[in-house]
Amino acid sequence: RLYRGLGDVQLPSKLLVPDEFLLRGGVEFGFLSATTDRNVALAYAGHSSSGVLYELSQGIRARGAELSWLSQYPHEQERCFPPLTALEVGSTPEGRPAVSMSGPCTIITLRPCVVELSESP
Length: 121
What we know:
The protein has one helix and nine strands. By secondary structure, the chain is mostly beta strands. The longest helix has 8 residues, at 38-45.
């Protein structure tokens, strides 16, 4: 599991509403940085009244690149996903969005999906 902390952020309600394909989520337009250390992510989420913690469940085809070996902060155990990574909101057994609260922090379970570009013929 990976974690990404965001401080002073409000999740858009549209993120939690199923679309016409019954999917919930969005797309990260830039690089998505995450960590294996939940406490590091919580520090980034801060102690504000609107911090968000992403809990990312990696699959076999969508894994973040390990960057600790070149990081100025190797203890953060950074993983990076490319731009245009789709983030699908996880579901509870009852089918509701996997969102919870821990103090002032909103915790949301997401599954990243990296789009593969095909070569032109």
